[in-house]
Amino acid sequence: xxxxxxxxxxxxxxxxxxxxxxxxxxxxxxxxxxxxxxxxxxxxxxxxxx
Length: 50
Description:
mainly alpha
């Protein structure tokens, strides 16, 4: 699952998410953000297919 939010996540938000997500990616410059999300999804797919 990929969740995208415009909200800036605080420490409490990050702690709540860490237990249920693969990785938290901070929003950033457009193309860099897209590459980070693509890499995270690709990693999940590789592990699923292994």
